Amino acid sequence: MAPTRGEQREDAVLRATLELLAEIGYGSLTMDAVAARAKASKATIYRRWSGKTQLAIAAVERHTTGADRPAPDTGTLRGDLLALLTSMRDDLTVQSAALVLGLLTAMRDDAALAAAVRARLIGVKRDAFAPALDRAAARGEIPAGADHELLAEVASALLFSRLFVTGEPLDDAFLDRLADAVILPLVHGATR
Fold first, then answer.
1. What is the DSSP string of 70-101?
2. How far apart are CA 21 and CA 62, in angstroms?
3. d(Cα 16, Cα 62) in Å, to the nearest integer?
4. Has domain 73-189 been given CATH number 1.10.357.10?
5. Integer Cα distance of 13 and 138 in angstroms
6. Which of 10, 22, 30, 152 could form a disulfide with 126 if both were Cys (CB 3.0 to 4.6 A apart)?
7. CB–CB of 98/22 below 8 Å?
8. Could you tell me which Pfam families the record lists for this protein (predicted)?
9. Quick one: residue 190, left, alpha or beta (phi over 0 = left, psi -120 to 50 = alpha)?
10. At the topology level of CATH, where does 5-62 sit?
11. How is the chain split into domains, by residue range?
């Protein structure tokens, strides 16, 4: 079934919001700019979202809807971890990185926005590790109870640091090193 005119308008507004967040950041985002980019009226936007925070939250939620896909099952913990790290890297280098940078400062000052970004952009990554670890424990590869939240936080921090701080490549060789030298040793030592 084809999307309705209202659904098309909503998609255009949310897409424009994401683009502007990535380009100019939350602080510079205005409803006027979103309306102009989406070719919509401000009245249309305000009928659906009461303000900039609600609009940004809706855009982040829409952006991450496909990100909560099931964790890959390659048959081994190392294979699953590499698939997860590859997915995280690809998401980060495509659009999420610019989006997160556009939101970082605002997250410090806006609790609702921070909660939504943490839940969607960070929470999805955190939750992706749990099935891989559960499968590995069921196969006897690792002890039960590995801390998937810590692993996701460490992996995210290292990918983010590499992309924005050191500027070094996020290539497959780095992902192999990250899995073998950091994540797998943590898995074996990080039980709750």
1. PPP--SSHHHHHHHHHHHHHHHIIIIIHHHHH
2. 14
3. 12
4. yes
5. 45
6. 152
7. yes
8. TetR_C_11, TetR_N
9. beta
10. Arc Repressor Mutant, subunit A (1.10.10)
11. 5-62, 73-189
- Of 177, 176, 159, give the one whose Cα is nearest residue 168: 159
pLDDT tens-digit profile, the chain (192 residues): 788 888 889 999 999 999 898 888 888 999 999 999 999 999 999 999 999 999 998 888 887 765 556 678 999 999 999 999 998 888 777 666 777 777 877 888 888 888 887 877 677 777 788 899 999 999 999 988 888 888 888 998 898 889 888 989 999 999 999 999 999 999 987 554
Q: How far apart are CA 20 and CA 29, in angstroms?
A: 7
Helix (H, G, I), strand (E, B) or coil at 191: strand
Strand, coil or helix: 25: coil
**Phi and psi, residue 140, nearest 5°:** 85, 10
For the beta carbon of residue 35, count every other beta carbon within 10 angstroms.
Answer: 18
Show the tokens assigned to 48.
Answer: 């659906």
Reading the block at residue 191, the tokens are 């039980």
* Gap between the Cα atoms of 179 and 79, Å rounded: 9
Phi, psi of 191 (to 5 degrees): -110, 150
